[in-house]
Amino acid sequence: MTPAALRTALEARAHALGFAAFGVAPATAAPLAGARLRQWLSEGRHGDMIWMADTADRRASPQGLWPEVRSVVMLGTSYAPALDPLRHAGNPDTGVISVYAQGKDYHDTIKGRLKQLGNWLGSTGNDLKVFVDTAPVMEKPLAEAAGLGWQGKHTNLVSRAHGSWLFLGSIYTTAELPYDAVHRDLCGSCDRCQRACPTDAFPAPYRLDARRCISYLTIEHKGPIPVEFRAAIGNRIYGCDDCLAVCPWNRFAQASADLAFAARPDLAAPSLAELLALDDTGFRARFAGSPVKRIGRGRFVRNVCIAAGNSGDAALLPVLVGLAEDGDAVVAEAAAWATTQIRA
């Protein structure tokens, strides 16, 4: 099979498996990504994500992770929402969970599809490795190099067809495949994402300070959330979609028909009162199969306590007073803060 024929067949199989975007980049693509990563790390903007620094050399380039790789196949899966992701912002009774986490855990779903695609590619005599999110791979610069879209001013990938709503996965392979052209930046003078950020997490366009990002603070950060950001968090209890949701390119995105990522009714607008009452067993049962489960009950209830404090709802005081004695010190501190906020 010629390289062109192999690529055509691979792309057809990718679409059949549910991937909405497909592109190929050389293993030497995105040569500046490594230097930008190291600058970002040197400025401390990765916060507590120590693994970013620990894996910097492998993350900086595909060949740094796997010297034998010749082509990088980048794949995108749409999770574009049918409804406005910001419709529940400021609702004092409910928490807001990021769109990507309202359905099944994308890590498992996409990894399974990548493995199916990889099995077929492997049957043609080529070696390969598949990755989704958790590996030291620069997915967004590589996706731009493979023509899937461009890395926008909010630092996430933007697609002309799918807006800011693509899950990314990659296949590193020894196969020599025809490459796509690098996608050009189409952000222009737009700065909606910069202005939409509640915590001013963008020191400049195309630069993110994770330490100020609500997604980082509510998901990756393990300790108490800095007091200076708590009011701005509002009722966001897992992640934040503000910079993604305001992107004008979203108007071209069709709501995803992929049932794996359809919002679960109990996660679309969950009650703060119900979530505050979760013990560890209840948390694991409520979020089984969801990416939310990955952060554990402690971090999650900490987030809910912050939202409860911002709600001003005195009806939540009894459960918050109880949580102020929680065995998890981070939960207890957040509950005590929330109690003080409501009583103020």
UniProtKB/TrEMBL annotation:
<dbReference type="InterPro" id="IPR017896">
    <property type="entry name" value="4Fe4S_Fe-S-bd"/>
</dbReference>
<feature type="binding site">
    <location>
        <position position="168"/>
    </location>
    <ligand>
        <name>cob(II)alamin</name>
    </ligand>
</feature>
<feature type="binding site">
    <location>
        <position position="213"/>
    </location>
    <ligand>
        <name>[4Fe-4S] cluster 2</name>
    </ligand>
</feature>
<keyword id="KW-0411">Iron-sulfur</keyword>
<feature type="binding site">
    <location>
        <position position="133"/>
    </location>
    <ligand>
        <name>cob(II)alamin</name>
    </ligand>
</feature>
<feature type="binding site">
    <location>
        <position position="190"/>
    </location>
    <ligand>
        <name>[4Fe-4S] cluster 1</name>
    </ligand>
</feature>
<comment type="pathway">
    <text>tRNA modification; tRNA-queuosine biosynthesis.</text>
</comment>
<feature type="binding site">
    <location>
        <position position="193"/>
    </location>
    <ligand>
        <name>[4Fe-4S] cluster 1</name>
    </ligand>
</feature>
<keyword id="KW-0479">Metal-binding</keyword>
<comment type="function">
    <text>Catalyzes the conversion of epoxyqueuosine (oQ) to queuosine (Q), which is a hypermodified base found in the wobble positions of tRNA(Asp), tRNA(Asn), tRNA(His) and tRNA(Tyr).</text>
</comment>
<keyword id="KW-0819">tRNA processing</keyword>
<feature type="binding site">
    <location>
        <position position="243"/>
    </location>
    <ligand>
        <name>[4Fe-4S] cluster 2</name>
    </ligand>
</feature>
<dbReference type="Pfam" id="PF13484">
    <property type="entry name" value="Fer4_16"/>
</dbReference>
<comment type="subunit">
    <text>Monomer.</text>
</comment>
<feature type="binding site">
    <location>
        <position position="59"/>
    </location>
    <ligand>
        <name>cob(II)alamin</name>
    </ligand>
</feature>
<comment type="similarity">
    <text>Belongs to the QueG family.</text>
</comment>
<feature type="binding site">
    <location>
        <position position="197"/>
    </location>
    <ligand>
        <name>[4Fe-4S] cluster 2</name>
    </ligand>
</feature>
<feature type="binding site">
    <location>
        <position position="215"/>
    </location>
    <ligand>
        <name>cob(II)alamin</name>
    </ligand>
</feature>
<feature type="binding site">
    <location>
        <position position="247"/>
    </location>
    <ligand>
        <name>[4Fe-4S] cluster 1</name>
    </ligand>
</feature>
<keyword id="KW-0846">Cobalamin</keyword>
<dbReference type="GO" id="GO:0005737">
    <property type="term" value="C:cytoplasm"/>
</dbReference>
<feature type="active site" description="Proton donor">
    <location>
        <position position="133"/>
    </location>
</feature>
<feature type="binding site">
    <location>
        <begin position="240"/>
        <end position="241"/>
    </location>
    <ligand>
        <name>cob(II)alamin</name>
    </ligand>
</feature>
<dbReference type="Pfam" id="PF08331">
    <property type="entry name" value="QueG_DUF1730"/>
</dbReference>
<feature type="binding site">
    <location>
        <position position="240"/>
    </location>
    <ligand>
        <name>[4Fe-4S] cluster 2</name>
    </ligand>
</feature>
<protein>
    <recommendedName>
        <fullName>Epoxyqueuosine reductase</fullName>
        <ecNumber>1.17.99.6</ecNumber>
    </recommendedName>
</protein>
<dbReference type="GO" id="GO:0031419">
    <property type="term" value="F:cobalamin binding"/>
</dbReference>
<dbReference type="GO" id="GO:0008616">
    <property type="term" value="P:tRNA queuosine(34) biosynthetic process"/>
</dbReference>
<dbReference type="InterPro" id="IPR017900">
    <property type="entry name" value="4Fe4S_Fe_S_CS"/>
</dbReference>
<dbReference type="GO" id="GO:0046872">
    <property type="term" value="F:metal ion binding"/>
</dbReference>
<feature type="binding site">
    <location>
        <position position="157"/>
    </location>
    <ligand>
        <name>cob(II)alamin</name>
    </ligand>
</feature>
<keyword id="KW-0170">Cobalt</keyword>
<keyword id="KW-0004">4Fe-4S</keyword>
<keyword id="KW-0671">Queuosine biosynthesis</keyword>
<dbReference type="GO" id="GO:0051539">
    <property type="term" value="F:4 iron, 4 sulfur cluster binding"/>
</dbReference>
<keyword id="KW-0963">Cytoplasm</keyword>
<feature type="domain" description="4Fe-4S ferredoxin-type">
    <location>
        <begin position="178"/>
        <end position="207"/>
    </location>
</feature>
<dbReference type="InterPro" id="IPR004453">
    <property type="entry name" value="QueG"/>
</dbReference>
<dbReference type="InterPro" id="IPR013542">
    <property type="entry name" value="QueG_DUF1730"/>
</dbReference>
<keyword id="KW-0560">Oxidoreductase</keyword>
<feature type="binding site">
    <location>
        <position position="222"/>
    </location>
    <ligand>
        <name>tRNA</name>
    </ligand>
</feature>
<dbReference type="GO" id="GO:0052693">
    <property type="term" value="F:epoxyqueuosine reductase activity"/>
</dbReference>
